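User: tokens in, sequence out, please.
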């Protein structure tokens, strides 16, 4: 019997739900299953009839870039009743569905789990009442559940990120960036209210990404007297030269007595105690709307593929599973445990056990609160001592969005620990030539949301004959520790410095290395700073290309950056809905091209109006994007036209995405913490970003041993596992 999978979106909508639905439908077809949409969530399961509809391959075409959910969603009060669940079970069984993938929040997933547990009881009752046949009961004795969390609040334990959160952060940070411009022009204070009834993730992370001055979170209410402290913090900021003040408040924020802290209440406090008329912006459902981000597309896609595998492989002993991500890799966790842990956080907040609520969000959340409090101060909380150490900060290698946030957080973290901070201008050549300058707290103000690299950077690897001058520069400027932020050229330079420490005593200082790179071609860290911004640029470009082709039959060959690393073309292809992805890791053969041309012609002959191929810039020396475009068009004999789009250096530009700003914040803070510990302990170890390590920094050799120096990429790249995801979703079963 052909397995049948039901998919529903339930509760509040979230960007990226459509990507998950598309992945579930197409993966199910690949695996020989039939997939049914249960429209309007649990309410559709109760209504039955046309609310449970078969979905084919083409039914989910063109939905990847759409916000919301094309199969509809609703909150169902009726499903909370026993009769509602019984009716839903009846309708599912009558349609032969005993595998269910639910995309929703904790309420929807709790309902799914409850239905799963009660299913055998419901089956027996339905047979006894004559509502289903004995044969139907025998064929569907168990319900197998996989849950995907669709929630912009990122409020579910068991996954690092929920579907829709990243897109919501895009909406919020875009608003804060825009508000900052007008606020600075008029020396004004703005209060921005964001969603988050029980979870302050959006408020906290948008405050960090947007460089906000103050924030209010449900998990961490301010202590009594917060009104005066808030006014004081804002006043210090103005005294330090800030022209604007931005406050971010979660909709569920409250004080220690449980009284809501609303935007209106904050406005009243500022009016009464500071004589200032603050402006209020309530973003509301704007946060749920718009096009899903690149991350929400590829992450939701990968989770959808895994969810299908889980429900098809489930047996009588399999527990309902929550499919999410850990360190950007798809992960499964027990659904019940995740839901219960999530509910406990709300209980902690209600009981006033705020440290427990914060802790339950995870160590990362706690750390980010501490980081934010440090960054939002108008000046360092610790005055430099007479024996303060001097930490130099330097960019190196190609430009990547987020470099400025790395520098900002590094400088402020170092100053807040009592150190003197020194910027090396112009990358490795600046280190060689001694281009150093001291930087203060205000020198990095306003850098959180800006692209580029204010300290300067260059693609340059130090040569052996330049090491003496480098060492002299470090000695003459009395540098006690060094933080290097850059791509392959930075890694190669720091590697050389470590190897030459015996010859040059000036290199015997603590050195930390961080990974900004749009190519995502560095070992030890799953997403280099800048890679997410570049990926969004690629996906946005693909969306525009798709729109430009809507009026005619057209194929596009889109060329991304990447050189020897195929992260951008593959993940961009998944998020953009491409039919082909050509990667430097696999190259291009004539035999492959011949097969691809046949598939391309067949696609248009069978009714396709658009076809997309994505390739990395140096995938092939001979089969360039221009050659591919000409070959594709020649073989079409007028059936379609072909255009080429080279995205180019705009992938390195623009303001960094929220993901990259947050990523940079965490990395820079932990790197400076490591250097601080070394300076206090008298050690001089070279370290680099390494996500599996507590403290996120590991000895340099541990990281660089994973580097393929000739190919300028890690020997193993986690994202290559997503090649199978791309293959399943880009080609119908039977296509080569």
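Assistant: Sequence out:
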């Amino acid at each position: 019997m052909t397995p049948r999978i039901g998919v529903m979106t339930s509760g509040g909508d979230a960007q990226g739900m459509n990507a998950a639905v598309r992945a579930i439908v197409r993966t199910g077809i690949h695996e020989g299953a039939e997939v049914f949409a249960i429209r309007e969530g649990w309410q559709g399961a109760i209504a039955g009839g046309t609310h449970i509809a078969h979905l084919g391959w083409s039914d989910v075409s063109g939905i990847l870039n759409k916000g919301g959910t094309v199969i509809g969603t609703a909150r169902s009060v009726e499903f909370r009743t026993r009769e509602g669940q019984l009716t839903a079970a009846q309708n599912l069984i009558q349609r032969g569905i005993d595998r269910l993938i639910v995309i929703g929040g904790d309420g929807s997933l709790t309902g799914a789990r409850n239905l799963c547990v009660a299913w055998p009881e419901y089956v027996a009752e339905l047979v006894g009442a004559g509502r289903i046949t004995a044969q139907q009961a025998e064929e569907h004795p168990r319900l197998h559940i996989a849950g995907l969390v669709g929630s912009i609040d990122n409020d579910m334990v068991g996954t690092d990120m929920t579907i829709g959160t990243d897109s919501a952060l895009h909406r919020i940070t875009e608003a804060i960036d825009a508000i900052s411009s007008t606020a600075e022009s008029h020396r004004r204070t703005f209060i921005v209210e964001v969603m988050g009834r029980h979870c302050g993730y959006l408020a906290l992370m948008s405050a960090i990404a947007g460089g906000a001055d103050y924030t209010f979170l449900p998990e961490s209410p301010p202590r009594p007297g917060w009104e005066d402290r808030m006014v004081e913090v804002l006043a210090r900021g103005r005294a330090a030269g800030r022209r604007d003040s931005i406050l971010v408040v979660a909709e569920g924020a409250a004080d220690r007595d449980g009284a809501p802290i609303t935007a209106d209440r904050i406005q009243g406090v500022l009016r009464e105690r500071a004589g200032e008329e603050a402006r209020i912006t309530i973003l509301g459902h704007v946060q749920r709307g718009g096009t899903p981000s690149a991350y929400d597309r590829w992450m939701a896609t990968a989770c959808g593929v895994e969810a299908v595998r889980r429900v098809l492989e489930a047996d009588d002993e399999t527990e309902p599973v929550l499919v999410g991500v850990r360190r950007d890799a798809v992960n499964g966790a027990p659904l019940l445990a995740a839901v219960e842990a999530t509910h406990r956080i709300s209980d902690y907040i209600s009981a006033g056990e705020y440290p427990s609520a914060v802790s339950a969000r995870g160590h990362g959340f706690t750390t980010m609160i501490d980081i934010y409090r440090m960054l939002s101060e108008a000046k360092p909380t610790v005055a430099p001592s007479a024996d303060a150490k001097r930490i130099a900060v330097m960019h190196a290698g190609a430009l990547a969005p987020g470099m400025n946030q790395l520098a900002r957080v590094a400088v402020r973290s170092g100053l807040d620990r009592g150190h003197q901070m020194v910027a090396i201008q112009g990358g490795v050549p600046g280190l060689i030539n001694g281009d150093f300058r001291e930087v203060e707290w205000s020198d990095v103000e306003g850098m959180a949301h800006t692209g580029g690299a204010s300290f300067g950077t260059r693609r340059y690897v130090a040569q052996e004959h330049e090491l003496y001058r480098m060492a002299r520069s470090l000695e003459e400027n009395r540098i006690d520790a060094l933080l290097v932020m850059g791509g392959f050229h930075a890694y190669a330079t720091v590697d050389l410095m470590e190897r030459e420490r015996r010859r040059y005593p000036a290199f015997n200082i603590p050195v930390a290395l961080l990974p900004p790179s749009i190519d995502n071609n560095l070992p030890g860290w799953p997403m280099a700073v800048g890679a997410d911004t570049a990926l969004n640029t690629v996906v946005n470009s693909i969306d525009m290309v798709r729109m430009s082709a809507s009026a005619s039959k057209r194929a596009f060959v889109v060329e991304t950056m990447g050189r020897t690393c195929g992260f951008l073309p593959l993940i961009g292809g998944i998020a953009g809905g491409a039919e082909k992805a050509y990667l430097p890791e696999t190259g291009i053969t004539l035999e492959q091209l011949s097969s691809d041309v046949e598939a391309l012609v067949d696609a248009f002959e069978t009714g396709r109006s658009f076809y997309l191929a994505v390739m990395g810039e140096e995938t092939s020396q001979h089969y360039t994007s221009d050659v591919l475009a000409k070959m594709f068009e020649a073989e079409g004999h007028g059936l379609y036209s072909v255009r080429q789009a080279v995205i180019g250096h705009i992938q390195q530009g623009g303001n960094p995405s929220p993901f990259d700003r947050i990523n940079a914040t965490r990395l820079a803070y932990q790197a400076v913490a490591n250097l601080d510990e070394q300076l206090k302990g008298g050690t001089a170890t070279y370290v680099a970003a390494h996500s599996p390590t507590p403290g996120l920094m590991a000895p340099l050799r541990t990281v660089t041993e994973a580097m393929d120096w000739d190919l300028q990429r890690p020997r193993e790249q986690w994202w290559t596992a997503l090649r199978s995801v791309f293959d399943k979703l880009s080609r119908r079963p039977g296509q080569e």
